[in-house]
Amino acid sequence: MTPLPQWRERLRATPQWRAWREEVTPAAGACVMATGILSIGLFLTGHDVLSEILLAIAALLWVLLAADFTDLLARDRARWTAAAITPPALTAVAATTVLGTRFSLLGWQWLAIVLLVIATVVWPGLLVAVVRHWERGMPGGVFLVCVATQGLSLLTATLYFAGKGEWLGDAGLALFALGLLLYADALLRFDFRQVWTGAGDQWVAGGALAISALAASKLTASPLWTGTGHEFLRNLTYVLLALALAWYAALAAAEAARPRFHYDVRRWATVFPLGMTAVAALSTGIVTDVPWLRTLGRVLLWVAVAVWGLVWVGFAWARSQAGGPRGGAPGPPLPETGGSAPGPPSSA
Question: Does 109 reside within a domain?
């Protein structure tokens, strides 16, 4: 019988393992984010069984990616470091907070707290590393600095409503404000040509505002802020949601004018903003008692679910074509700073 260590070495030497390692870039964390936020949206709309199925998928993917992250750190520190300084590395934080939020809504507060601790420990180091390597003309992944921070705000606010301490509400507000500042800085560094040429992660420009609106809606519902503070948060929620919807419309129009049908791992960074915009509309409609926003959220949610399914089909089809994520070609190389190189206009 082959000893376990030798079996592992043989597995790592196979072409299939090497192909998996090439495909599992930091951007793959967006798959967990996308699946997790759809689970939250389905929960909010009463589709509990489907929501829990997606939660199970997201949790399994999170475990697999966390194991790969740990294995890469142990075996190839240079590659791990190169990945950790790119914006897509922050999908590790964002995915963990989205998953934690869903578990909190499920009533598993202990697991949500564990995930909050993990995200809080990982977030500062990755954030500083990414910001230190920022430059001008970056792809949409640059907005993940905002997404990861607002994810922490969302999870802390959710745990506050679960009765885990008033200080979590204050922490959520502080993280929310920091997330908005990071968005403004990221916007200055974003290459707006990505709207037309991006491989999928250009959608994070709107998704970052959507998760900001979702966090704001949670804070608006808190009794910690009344009077002027409450009114300010409510109006800010409307503004952020309107801006997210404007990005949604602009990016959808650009996709229609310049279709990019080929599969790319960064397409998961399209699904997440679609789902997040839907959930932000649902939550805002619930908190502010605006029925048409709830209706809009339901419509956008099923659009996101459909695109989620299409991306899975694209993934399966690409895998069937000689095992590569782009129909047999190797995965996109990991650049020094951007985290995802801009794709050619005809491919995504």
Answer: yes
* CA–CA separation, 209 and 132 (whole Å): 23
What is the domain count for the chain?
1
Residue 56 sits in a domain of what CATH number? 1.50.10.150
Retrieve residue 185's tokens.
């800085």
- What integer is the mean pLDDT of 204-228? 94
Q: Is 330 left (phi over 0), alpha (psi -120 to 50) or beta?
A: beta
Range of the domain at 128: 25-320
What pLDDT is attached to residue 22?
A: 52
Q: What band does 168 get if pLDDT is binned at 50, 70 and 90?
A: very high
**278 falls within a domain:** yes
C-alpha 45/C-alpha 239 separation (Å) is 23
Q: Is residue 9 part of a domain?
A: no
pLDDT digit string (tens) for 98-156? 999 999 999 999 999 999 999 999 999 999 999 998 888 899 999 999 999 999 999 99
